[in-house]
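In this notation, each integer encodes one residue's backbone shape. One such record reads:

___
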Amino acid sequence: MPTFYFDRKDGIPIRDRAGLEFPAIANAIEHSKELARRLGSEQPRKDPALAIVVIDESGAEVHRERVYPDVQEPT
């Protein structure tokens, strides 16, 4: 089973060093959505740049889930 890493990014990234195994990318994406929901409820600061980034074993970004999708980035 492939390993996926779930980095937290909001300017300075927080790297996931352990990762988790999932049978498919879709499962890892669903996990990132759950992480984003939990983080959003724990940190009500509404930072539009905060995201959970899913990285595959090769180091490629496969998905980016915004924690606060309804908050607009400043222009």
Strands lie at 3-9, 20-21, 51-55, 61-66. Helices lie at 25-42. The first strand starts at residue 3 and ends at 9.
